[in-house]
Description:
Blueprint: H1 2-18, H2 20-38, H3 40-43, H4 47-67, H5 82-108, H6 114-140, H7 155-180, H8 185-223, H9 226-246, H10 253-265, H11 267-281, H12 285-294
Amino acid sequence: MGEELKVSKFEQMKLLLRKKDVIFFIGLYCFSLIVVSLFSDQIGFSYIDYITFYAGISILLCLTLIVTKNIKPREITTKNDLTESSVLYGWTILMILTLFNFIFTLRSLGITSGIYITVINAIFNSITLFLIPLITLVYIRKYSYDSLGFSKDQLKKNAIASIIVFVGILVAIFIVQITIFENDISYVITQLPLALIQNLFIAALPEEFIFRATIQTRMSNKYESKVRGIIITTLLFGVLHAISWGQSGNYSIELIFLLIFRAIVFQALIGLVFGIMWARTHNLILPIIAHMAWNCIYL
């Protein structure tokens, strides 16, 4: 039986790698990695950054597969009509572009204080990418909270999985900060709580809700493929993050493309792991906690 199970898993992996979506993503990722590696000096990444990033991603992915092994996600049905899809995707892109342009305008006016940018980010993202879509989907589109990732189903298993992943990333934060950045442990302990709170409201909660619970779910249902849903959302997640870097200065077309390739290499890959977390749980606890903690590795 054990041998048959191994063969079965191996065959599943072969079928997965033969999917056109997976082949496309791997090809695009490899091309992006080559480009980013060739122009590392221009986009500010060293080889130590690659090593720590891939080591962290590998550990996080393995940990995710282990802690979610016994979680059986409930099926989520969506309406997938043109109105809902166009409004949802259009609103998401518009709000992200609006935020980055607003922050860029503040910087051009000389308002560069970290506290102002942080507060604006937290308020804007929480309202536009979380509260407004949540209210719209629940009270206008009549979705249940369960279908949007706020489910009590298997809550204990999801909570335990989240705690394990959080502790794992927490250990990584201390290792990276102390050994690579040579910061004192007292500095990490002092800075970490505020960083976690900031990243919860700026990135983790609004981004996981809009990208995973809403967009990925609808893409997966529309194409009847979890794999395609994850890949489409992953690429959207990565490319939109590139816009934030592009708003920080006057860049050439060449450098803008480099930022997009960089986003595919780094942001899209971690987004892929968050997407797998959502697909294996259909609960937002794990991806939100993981996203919040991961963003604190570089305090």
